[in-house]
Amino acid sequence: MLAEDEASLYLQASLMRVWSPQGDTPVVKVAANRDSTHFYGALNLATGEQTALRSQLMNAEVSALFLEKILQTYPHKPILLVWDRAPWHKGAAIRLILAANPRLELLCFPAGSPELNPQEHVWKATREAVSHNHFKTKLTELAEIFEQHLTKTRFPCSLLDKHNYTELCAMFK
Asked: Which position among 2, 110, 123, 128 has the lowest Cβ density within 10 Å, counted as fewest Cβ atoms?
């Protein structure tokens, strides 16, 4: 079971609280442009592992590529992917992937409920660790660090524990 979402990463630093010596005002450099890139992310709710894809676009074709990446990541397992109702989650490219891969099932979160999506917590943790108050001057460098943090960090998720996932899985073995 995976929870999916997309996020945009800007070279422009976002600000958050920071400790500094008394009397020293912290300085965060601001980029003059609004360069950005996007990430698709899927959180494995059982293991906390992340599957990620960086892209310049968010559209149905890239969403289909991400679904293919998920299928390759879990080659012999049935997959339930829960995602939101973004317009790029619909279309011919998505229908083709689903028709060719019956082991992949999609389920949508209720409309207007990002707080239910565990992937939102992954974005928040990664932004806090990487893109808040950063000093990078190149988007490619920042995006690489962002992606490394996503793929090398385990993000625990209590959603399944709250709903007795382990017990439910044991019942169906």
From this structure: 110
